């Protein structure tokens, strides 16, 4: 086969170099035709669109072409011509085809028919070859690029916080342990508590639930930073919104107070959505057509509206009034309740009909590091609530007062010996600062219109599931 430099299908489809010889490589989506002419739809992952390969059966030989079935991988040399059919500008008239790998139609699971998302999760090693997951993972890449671009353009520094940690940032205790030991062999003290001195780190170590505390340290020297990496929660939550391993984006900014923090969150999320619409339209259009007819409309809707700033106390009043008027919620609503997703979505979808940033939560339901308000009852927390998703961002202004922070940590049972280094930033040149966390997969759910978080990460990690 003559060696010609490969052109990606995304570029071939834009080309107008009719009459030139090109080479494309990819996987066969479908093959149809007659004894004389065969039409192969070829895709290489660079775009959701296939290029049509037109094959003169007699010229290349019927026997030779037989193994070219759905899923096979081939390399094609041919002439780029203006397409006769609808839907694409160009097609390739094949002169040579090399078969790299066949896919037995009896056993290859992705034959040309509809497959349920549940079934595709069972073959997560092959699902990127489907139109749906090709689209989702191209969008995932683009969202990662948008995140780095947004912060870089605003002078933030990308800061790498540790994956293995000895501190529990959320005080939730649901952490995966990291050890080199057989846990049954670990020494115990007289109270039966494990002694970790023989373990690799000489103390209990876990996978991180958040890079926030270390991010705060960086903000108190570099001014404005963001983290973007994997985080781990050992919650036994088998829901369409929870993963045991997911990615988080956590900016932290010195001298920002809660109002600037809310503005940053709104600007950030709008930038990412605009980037998706500008750079992933083919993929978004496909997902809109196949899964969620309102997807594009909803993305544009978020861009068009300013986010409402709403104190928690007022939000609870609105929800209580809704109940009084006969609206049924599964979970009770009262001042002091941690709002459920149904409450958040009511505020966004039915009451305000636009995204809402809820602020000033009761301190009892929030973490120890949040700045306390003058009323002694609430803290400067903020949650950004979105249609269909509920909470997409959680953040706060941090407590910069050493005494208040120490008191709150002690009330919430966070041992000072675990966070002495964090407390030091309040002892040496403390300053107001704020930040938030965005679950990357929650953003992807919104941008792709998918409804299960397991479908926006290549290999989901959930209770009883660590396949692939």
UniProtKB/TrEMBL annotation:
<dbReference type="GO" id="GO:0005524">
    <property type="term" value="F:ATP binding"/>
</dbReference>
<keyword id="KW-0436">Ligase</keyword>
<comment type="subunit">
    <text>Homodimer.</text>
</comment>
<keyword id="KW-0547">Nucleotide-binding</keyword>
<dbReference type="InterPro" id="IPR045864">
    <property type="entry name" value="aa-tRNA-synth_II/BPL/LPL"/>
</dbReference>
<dbReference type="InterPro" id="IPR012340">
    <property type="entry name" value="NA-bd_OB-fold"/>
</dbReference>
<dbReference type="GO" id="GO:0005737">
    <property type="term" value="C:cytoplasm"/>
</dbReference>
<dbReference type="InterPro" id="IPR004365">
    <property type="entry name" value="NA-bd_OB_tRNA"/>
</dbReference>
<dbReference type="InterPro" id="IPR002312">
    <property type="entry name" value="Asp/Asn-tRNA-synth_IIb"/>
</dbReference>
<keyword id="KW-0963">Cytoplasm</keyword>
<protein>
    <recommendedName>
        <fullName>Asparagine--tRNA ligase</fullName>
        <ecNumber>6.1.1.22</ecNumber>
    </recommendedName>
</protein>
<comment type="similarity">
    <text>Belongs to the class-II aminoacyl-tRNA synthetase family.</text>
</comment>
<dbReference type="Pfam" id="PF01336">
    <property type="entry name" value="tRNA_anti-codon"/>
</dbReference>
<keyword id="KW-0067">ATP-binding</keyword>
<keyword id="KW-0030">Aminoacyl-tRNA synthetase</keyword>
<dbReference type="GO" id="GO:0003676">
    <property type="term" value="F:nucleic acid binding"/>
</dbReference>
<feature type="domain" description="Aminoacyl-transfer RNA synthetases class-II family profile">
    <location>
        <begin position="137"/>
        <end position="458"/>
    </location>
</feature>
<dbReference type="GO" id="GO:0004816">
    <property type="term" value="F:asparagine-tRNA ligase activity"/>
</dbReference>
<dbReference type="Pfam" id="PF00152">
    <property type="entry name" value="tRNA-synt_2"/>
</dbReference>
<dbReference type="InterPro" id="IPR004522">
    <property type="entry name" value="Asn-tRNA-ligase"/>
</dbReference>
<dbReference type="GO" id="GO:0006421">
    <property type="term" value="P:asparaginyl-tRNA aminoacylation"/>
</dbReference>
<dbReference type="InterPro" id="IPR006195">
    <property type="entry name" value="aa-tRNA-synth_II"/>
</dbReference>
<dbReference type="InterPro" id="IPR004364">
    <property type="entry name" value="Aa-tRNA-synt_II"/>
</dbReference>
<keyword id="KW-0648">Protein biosynthesis</keyword>
